[in-house]
Backbone:
């Protein structure tokens, strides 16, 4: 009898949840980190990338061989490049030129075509250009910012995993906000299990630039974002995010990116205000894709 071996797609999700050991957490609280860098392409974005493609296929919106287009600041692009390689799609990714060289190299390694806009034009221009290319018949935009299949991935996987791993004891969920897919899907699931769970979003302070998270202008606020699903938003400075990221590597052995540092910084701030809580935060990716930027040096 033939053995039905798994494929790499079967290993998206099911990531570890670990507690902090050496960084002090105030007031008897437990701080748990969901290690999304353990996904095959190295970030939490593996979940929605695969979900958006598979659900679009199921609806008949796309089929192998089609060209997909997406605007990305990095992690979604890498995850989509992996998913496109698995599924047999061409992929064009549009991103600001100031993204790290590791991210660009990873996307190219998976076979994606990269198109850059200037740092000044930013993600807003990247998103507009993706829609322009779709209108010109160059491919299909998956649009992580408006696509309900993005938060659906987290409703189906990330949220249930956190609930099961904490045995239902979670009291607070903390996540940096970029497309907002993670916080929307997890919030929806956790609130269905226990409406008292507090959902906390992280955004950069004015003037701070933290890869992967944004303070969106109102006109570009992701359409999947529902304000009612977030109980509180904490502003994090770039300095806080980077210092916490370095502390996680040096004191906990958790090697992650800047937005993950921001998430833990927000969770530690929250721990100063509550007691005997179980706080879960998202470590969205791995630190190796930021080495060339010098943030660890």
Residues:
């Amino acid at each position: 009898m033939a053995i039905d071996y798994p494929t790499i797609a079967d290993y998206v999700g099911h990531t570890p949840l670990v507690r902090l050991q050496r960084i002090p957490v105030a007031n008897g609280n437990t701080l748990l980190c969901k290690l999304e860098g353990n996904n095959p392409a190295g970030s939490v974005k593996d979940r929605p990338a695969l979900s958006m493609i598979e659900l679009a296929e199921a609806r008949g919106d796309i089929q192998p061989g089609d060209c997909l287009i997406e605007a990305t600041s990095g992690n979604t692009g890498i995850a989509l490049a992996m998913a496109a390689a698995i599924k047999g799609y061409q992929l064009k990714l549009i991103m600001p030129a100031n993204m790290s060289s590791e991210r660009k190299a990873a996307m190219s390694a998976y076979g994606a075509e990269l198109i850059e806009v200037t740092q000044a034009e930013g993600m807003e221009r990247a998103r507009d250009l993706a829609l322009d290319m779709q209108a010109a018949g160059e491919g299909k935009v998956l649009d992580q910012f408006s696509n309900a299949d993005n938060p659906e991935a987290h409703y189906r996987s990330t949220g249930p995993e956190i609930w099961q791993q904490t045995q239902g004891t979670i009291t607070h969920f903390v996540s940096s906000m970029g497309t907002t897919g993670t916080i929307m899907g997890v919030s929806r699931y956790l609130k269905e299990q226990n409406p008292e769970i507090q959902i906390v979003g992280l955004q950069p302070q004015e003037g701070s630039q933290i890869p992967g998270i944004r303070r969106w202008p109102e006109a570009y606020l992701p359409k999947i974002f529902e304000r009612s699903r977030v109980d509180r938003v904490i502003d994090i400075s770039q300095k806080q995010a980077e210092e916490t990221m370095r502390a996680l590597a040096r004191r906990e052995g958790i090697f992650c990116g800047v937005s993950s540092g921001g998430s833990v910084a927000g969770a530690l701030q929250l721990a100063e205000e509550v007691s005997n809580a179980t706080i879960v935060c998202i470590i969205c990716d791995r630190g190796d894709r930021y080495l060339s930027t010098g943030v660890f040096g």
Notes: The chain has two domains: 8-39+157-293, 45-141. The beta strands are 17-19, 30-35, 67-71, 90-96, 113-117, 140-141, 172-176, 198-204, 232-236, 278-283.
